[in-house]
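Researcher: We are triaging several targets before committing to wet-lab work. For this one, the compound of interest is nicotinamide-adenine-dinucleotide. I'm pasting the protein sequence and the ligand SMILES. What I need is the predicted three-dimensional arrangement of the protein with the ligand bound, expressed as structure tokens, so it can go straight into our comparison scripts without reformatting.
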Amino acid sequence: MKRIKAAVVGAGIYGSHHINAYLNNDKTELVGVCDLDPKKLDMVKKEYSINTYTDLEEMIKKEKPDIISIATPDPYHFGPAKTAIENNIDVLVEKPLATSRKECEELIKLAEAHNVKVGVDFHKRWDPASINLKLELEKEDTGKIVRGYVSMDDIIDVPVNWLPWSRNSSPAYFLGVHCYDLIRYLIEDEVTEVYAVGSKSVLSGMGIDTYDNVQAILKFSKGSTWTVENSWILPDKFPKSNDGRMFIVTEKKYLRSDSQNRGVEFFSDTKTQTPNSYFITYRNNKAFGFGIDPINDFTDSIISGEKFMANAVDGLEATKIADAVHESIITGKPVKLER
Ligand SMILES: NC(=O)c1ccc[n+]([C@@H]2O[C@H](COP(=O)([O-])OP(=O)(O)OC[C@H]3O[C@@H](n4cnc5c(N)ncnc54)[C@H](O)[C@@H]3O)[C@@H](O)[C@H]2O)c1
């Protein structure tokens, strides 16, 4: 069988997982990696013998990829995604699809015009815990969903040292979109109204002008209400780079899920670590887990022509909620979502 030619734009922390996934998938051939930073490309070249580019148009012209993964920083997905779509290439975009409703809508229009598939890497949909929650919610005896709570937080090292661009994103765009998307997916309902508050102090005091914490109340059309909390300032001593919880109250049940309680704990005199071994684990240089599954599923969806689990409209809806969260923080008022 002819392999699908794949390329990756953005060879940073998460782009490296896309690179690994395509290199280890029998159905794909990684034909190129593009990054604006030559140092990142040198690191890729050192590890793998792959053609690298600083110019996306040049990579497309020379390598003619069938699919492109876009793993550039949150605010810079739009440009490379637009270029790929205009060249009739299917794209898998890291979350968020883009950091404004307008950009998402433009990408959707372009994708329709060029008849290309756009996937968004909302990998929480692939988390075995989410799959279990969805199966339980779908049971007839669960009753109507009444209320939910979701948190997803990062240690402060993430915005301060991992992401040089964190000031151009926020806990809502980096973490919140995962939560907004997961709720939509689990309960198959749309947000009608958002009220949010946010605070800036610790990060802005370090010269990074973004929110430390964002708390949002989301009202859904079928009547359930949800609280979503996202912080970027957990202490670095927390034993994992992030933390997350989900509690759901239905008319008949109480469901709880906890990303911290994944069964592996390491203790030493100096450190405690609790890796989420279901997310991304490397063995013999091959990555596997629910952080990798969507990348392989996207290839499968291109081969089979079947729907990919998270598409551009899902990307748009999550960004619309994040935009409304920001608007509500700034105005101090609830924001209604029109569709
Ligand atoms: N870090 C994580 O844990 C994580 C997890 C899931 C998803 N993501 C998402 O993946 C995306 C990338 O995040 P990251 O953590 O890998 O960031 P990163 O800063 O480590 O990597 C981004 C890379 O993109 C490159 N770049 C920037 N603009 C570019 C452009 N126009 N063309 C080509 N390359 C460009 C940068 O030089 C950098 O190497 C983000 O949207 C993020 O939300 C990150």
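Researcher: Any quick observations?
Model: Residues 4-123+291-310 form a domain with the Rossmann fold fold (CATH 3.40.50.720).
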